[in-house]
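pasting for ref
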Amino acid sequence: MSDTVTAPIPSAAGRRRPLILAILAGVALALVLLGPLFLDRFSMNVLTRSMIYAILAITVDLLWGFTGILTFGQAAFFGIGAYASAMLLTHIGSSPALLGLALVLAIVVPVLLGVAVGWLSFYYGSTPIYATVISLVFPIVVTQLVYSGGTLTGSSSGLVGYFGLPFGLEGFFRLSGICLVAVAVAALVFVRSDAGRLLTAIRDNETRCAYLGLNTQRIKIALTATLAGVAGLAGFLYANASGVVAPENTGFVFGTELVVWTALGGRGTVLGPVLGTIGIDYLSANLSGELPFLWQLIVGALFVVMIIFLPNGLAALVTRFTRRGRSEVVAGGGPTLVPEKPLHHMKTASGPLLSIERLEKSYGSQKVLEDITLDVAPGELVSLVGPNGAGKTTMMRCLTDGKERSGGTVRIAGQDIAGMIPNQIVALGVGRKFQVASVFESMTVADCLRMSRAALEAPSFVTASDALGLPPAAIEILRLTGLDKLLATEVSLLSHGQKQSLELAMVVSLEPRLILLDEPTAGLTKTERTTIGAILKKLTSELGFAAILVEHDLDFVCDISSRIVVLHQGRLVLDGSVQEVVNSDIVKTIYSGGEHV
């Protein structure tokens, strides 16, 4: 197997990005610091509020635009931070030490509540709509708590008259702007880093993330808690800059406005929501004074026009031009493949790697699998065949999700997987390839492969590596299928066969001991099937992988299998060599009706 495989030399675009970001940040800071010299008090007051809101919009964008979690709850975290500050400063005092305590409370309290909300929203098996409903209910609950707080929270009147940070209007303008620039730069650095790509991967295909060994629930809870803290920081700034907090700051309506501003600015871009929030809030403030009875109609009409002509937000005006630049970068360079030493040597394993005893799966009174007993040893390629509806894919689910089966025992390397979720089973050395290629459509080939290593090698939160370290077996798959020349290509541009090969390379990059493959040659040409077959034989016979293959192409199965297992009506009816199964009267009887294996 080749020890050195490289893609084209990376372009200088990646090296220029930090410089461009530094220049943009410098320009933004200059505008913030110099702004009070040429802005009137009204504009400074409105823009201070707008910049604080823009910090909130960034948190919404990271959750919704990048991770795919539509949330209306950031307003509640913002209000909690604001009220935590205002309540302390109102009822206890405003010494420097208490101001520091108010800042800590404004961040820590939302973080703790963010953990609780994340835990409620992202338990295993929850759906995206459930998380959205929780984010709708949370601001309503917080608002009602504010109303019922009496003199402690100021009830419907809110809190006013407390003493906060000793800054004037110009000072708060500069402080809010500096905080916005800092949060925006941190967000941009993060989303462009190797760790930041995890958010896009979860948005694109959370199921594949779980089957790459990533605990997506934990990632989403951590993200929710972290961004709740950022929202609390914005609340602290608002409470000090405005000198008043009210129930409206915690409510569902404000949370909806944040979502609208993010959408109109261009979600998934960071800068789009920032510019959209500042522009829309500033425009609304001006129109409300000049046209008090018409401003909402005008702003609403502008929203409709933007949705029609710029459905992807204001940022679409920029991305139309940057796409051309990206295509030139793809043509001129890409990541470098670096072979890595395997983490373990599978041929040293002894005994069955997979042991199934009396496996059952039922849906109510209907039994889909019954009394399945099977062992698979390292180096074996066991093909699982049977007519449609025999239970083949159901069996694959039971082997990769410890909560699926209704009865029996499944052990991986001697460990019972009962109650385990997919990422925990992957950690035991199991990789699963789905019937339909399960990849990340909006990412590049290289990014998909990086995701497959994220559970094994902690990705950086601040840098994006040009080097792509993969085990030699995965690099061989890329070389044989030509994907090593397409590392910088978006997955959506690949053919069906290339996506199938990419998913197989991703699974092998996990360095599993057992690979489960559900119809990996479906829809492939004869040449592509031959290539996949050669790869699978090499993985098992030479490298010691164990594999279970679900396949309908009997010729393909006979060419590469160590054993063939036949399922019929949820039962294992035959387990033998290729010749034993092909010549079996039982198999001929099962398929005598013209069904395909």
